[in-house]
Cell division ATP-binding protein FtsE (Geobacillus thermopakistaniensis), 231 residues
Amino acid sequence: MIEMQDVYKTYPNGVVALNGINVRIKQGEFVYVVGPSGAGKSTFIKMMYREEKPTSGTIMVNGVNLAKLKDSKVPLLRRHIGVVFQDFKLLPKLNVYENVAFALEVIEESPKVIRKKVMEVLDLVGLKHKIRSYPNELSGGEQQRVSIARSIVNSPKIVIADEPTGNLDPETSWGIVELFEKINDRGTTIVMATHNKEIVNATRRRVIAIENGKIVRDEAKGEYGYDASYV
């Protein structure tokens, strides 16, 4: 599903973000990516949906080498990858239904198909009763649920989440992780970068720890780690 081989990333300012990454994530896995701030987690995550390109190395996602993918083909790639951000990135002038439908309108789905898919995912995330609400009328947790609904409305094989609970209180964060687990149970691969030690330790999924641009730990049923620099 996702494979990186000898991946290096050096930014124009000379900062080495990734330093020889080798990893393989299989279909249907749920993986946490952890590490201290500045370790390279965000760059690692962004590589998977071609927000960043490697300086060298191979990145295969759904059988496509992202290192060689033309910029014009990136939108097509992202139709099969859902992305969830810490700050939600909802369109403020669109209501809940319209925000989720927008992802399907871009690929010119029919109105009938759009309505069916949107209502299905809003039901999954528990927001069918909020379809006419606007982002500023929602709590942070509700906004993140809309963001997740938008990311899965086109039935992607992979959902990539970059600190999706970073702006949420502990109770709301648990609700979001439980939602990701429900999505994972449907066969979708989940890759989630997080600083949430409690959730990682409690759920005991695969943990990939990154420090100084390198994978220093990869455990099938891992924990967050106890180094204070991770917090």
Q: What stands out?
A: The mean pLDDT is 92.
